[in-house]
Amino acid sequence: MKRVAVIGASGRMGTAVVKAVGACADMEVVARLNGGDTISRESLGGADVAVEFTSPASSERNVHALLDAGVDAVVGTTGWDDDAYARVRAHAEEAGRSVLIAPNFAIGAVLAMRFAQIAAPFFESAEVVEMHHPDKVDAPSGTAIATARGIARARGAAGLGDVPDATESDPHGARGARIDGVPVHAVRLRGLTASEEVLLGNPGEQLVIRTDSFDRVSFMPGVLLAVRSVSSRPGLTVGIESVMGL
Ligand SMILES: NC(=O)C1=CN([C@@H]2O[C@H](COP(=O)(O)OP(=O)(O)OC[C@H]3O[C@@H](n4cnc5c(N)ncnc54)[C@H](OP(=O)(O)O)[C@@H]3O)[C@@H](O)[C@H]2O)C=CC1
Ligand SMILES: O=C(O)C1=N[C@H](C(=O)O)C[C@H](O)C1
User: Fold this and answer.
1) Are 80 and 105 in contact (CB under 8 A)?
2) Where in the chain is the domain with CATH 3.40.50.720?
3) Helix, strand, coil % in the chain, rounded to nearest 5
4) Range 2-101+217-243 has CATH code 3.40.50.720
5) Distance 104 CA to ligand 1 centre (A)
6) How many other β-carbons are positioned within 10 Å of the β-carbon of residue 70?
């Protein structure tokens, strides 16, 4: 039986994780922590693995505390950059523990990111539009950042230059953010959970790759897969692509 601690247990994702883990015959929730709780061996209640969905401002600190407490971690919180990954990788290796951090655990979203990378070298233009509920605190989404970086890597490897764009004046920022040269746009709309469209254009044609999470249950198969496999992957794993065999 895998013993699981949930960090951010009262949040939107934490609530779904507590329910999903509780419904599995091979795992149980042994601790539920929220803002204001201290992460320690005692408060983690003998957990083997902690699932962390909190806020970009607290996630890295929580992961270091989990490693210090001798627990492997599955992390869905966004806001990670390369320096933070490097610090956590070093800490996990030094502690002989495992951390898996993924910007998106939904199977459709992971596949959409991969499809975008495959398609990117074949199109002149590429833009990412992410659409989320208006209670989300970060923009653009972690998924959109990862998608844009994947597209940029694929374009670079294929020898493609900048996306075509004749815009000379944009005083209101209507052309969105640029992540590694790829335009990224963020929509916040009541009623949405999490969606993303990758628009790819050539003369006379367009390819749209779209993924929708209508409900947070969409993230649970990926989270449970990560909980079951994280401890057999020493150090840091980023994304669930390799766990899915992609
Ligand atoms: N990877 C993926 O597939 C997905 C990632 N996400 C990401 O997960 C994160 C959380 O999203 P969501 O659940 O919607 O957010 P919520 O705001 O609903 O939940 C966050 C929870 O974290 C708690 N919290 C805040 N700080 C701490 C802390 N230092 N220690 C412990 N708990 C803390 C909050 O508790 P309190 O209010 O008491 O402070 C709250 O209950 C975001 O970064 C989001 O982008 C979301 C969906 C899918
Ligand atoms: O905050 C959310 O809701 C989501 N956050 C993640 C992100 O920023 O990519 C994953 C998903 O899009 C839902």
Assistant:
1) no
2) 2-101+217-243
3) 35, 25, 40
4) yes
5) 13
6) 13
What is the pLDDT, as a whole number, of residue 160? 98
Cis peptide preceding 140, ω within 30 of 0 = yes
Q: How far is it, in rounded angstroms, from Cα 59 to Cα 217?
A: 22
Positions in the chain whose pLDDT score sits under 50: none
Considering the chain, tell me which residue range(s) the CATH 3.30.360.10 domain(s) occupy: 107-214
**Can you give the pLDDT at residue 48?**
98
Residue type, position 132, single letter? H
CATH number listed for the domain at residues 107-214: 3.30.360.10
- Which pLDDT belongs to residue 27? 98
Which residue matches tokens 């992460």? 39
Residue 73: beta bridge partners?
Answer: 50, 99
Q: Which ligand is closest to the CA of 139, given by its number?
A: 2
The pLDDT value recorded for residue 108 is: 98
105 is annotated as contributing to ligand binding:
yes
Q: To which residue do tokens 């490693």 refer? A: 67
The vertex-242 CA angle with 240 and 245, nearest 5°, equals 110
Distance of CA 106 to the CA centre of its chain: 9
**pLDDT tens-digit profile of 188-231?**
999 999 999 999 999 999 999 999 999 999 999 999 999 999 99
Q: What's phi and psi for 50, nearest 5 deg?
A: -115, 140
Which residues form ligand 1's pocket by a CB distance below 6 Å?
7-8, 10-14, 33-35, 53-56, 58, 62, 76-78, 102-105, 142, 219
